[in-house]
Amino acid sequence: MMRLIPTLFALVFLSACTGSESSEGQPAALSAGDVLQRSLQFHDPQDKWPGAALHFVIDEPRIENPERQSEVFLNNAKKTFSINRRYGQTLITRGIVGDSCYSMADSVLVNPADTATIRLHRLECERTRGYRAFYKLLNGMPMSLYAPEVQLLPEVAEDSIGGRKALRIAARFNNPVIGEEWFIYFDPENYQLLGYGYADEGAGELLRLDGLVEVGGMRLPRMRHWYNRLDNSYLGSDIYVIVEEL
Fold this sequence. Notes:
Strand order of the largest sheet: 6-5-4-3-2-1-13-12-11-10-9-8-7
Number of strands: 13
Helix content: 10-25%
CATH architecture: Clam
Radius of gyration: 19 Å
Number of domains: 1
CATH class: Mainly Beta
Distance between the termini: 29 Å
Largest sheet: 13 strands, antiparallel
Structural class: alpha+beta
Shape: globular
Order of helices and strands: HHEEEEEEHHEEEEEEE
């Protein structure tokens, strides 16, 4: 998916504080930290995400592959992850237990010495770790963004995304592989996450979120729609068919 997929593997931000009231009793100007904290209260008011164990089935139609589907198992407490996806007639499983990676082809464990199969299906451990980071981040936003690799810029701007009014904040990344700055968009009424993408309007992709799934005390995005940031052309979607606790 162009530049967004590898860069999203490390998208995180610093901890945030709550907002304050002005002397007249009206809400004071919000900082980016205020907005993020309020969004967490909307999406995960009981702080369930760090210990969540979830099963996802996601239809992922893309312009070049309209039939793509992924099945993801994610356990944050036990630090386990696996993803099943079919490539042609072959079902490939990539997984991580603790710090160890494994892979299977049609439910048969791939021997680490089988370099031909590993190369054919791109089953390297580094790539599997990338899958885990990507799906953990996107499935858990905005909760999954808490980590020290991103500097949150303090300013909040009024903007729009997909025709909806939004509060926009920016995050700058401390990783040279990632684009320097990202925009993240929130509903100004309830602080629901609306989307995110590159701050540079001429680069990468923009994701717009649509709907919610309630599971385990959390509100997670129901659909993600991918657009080319340059010309706003549609690239694909992520549609959650199953979201359930393990």
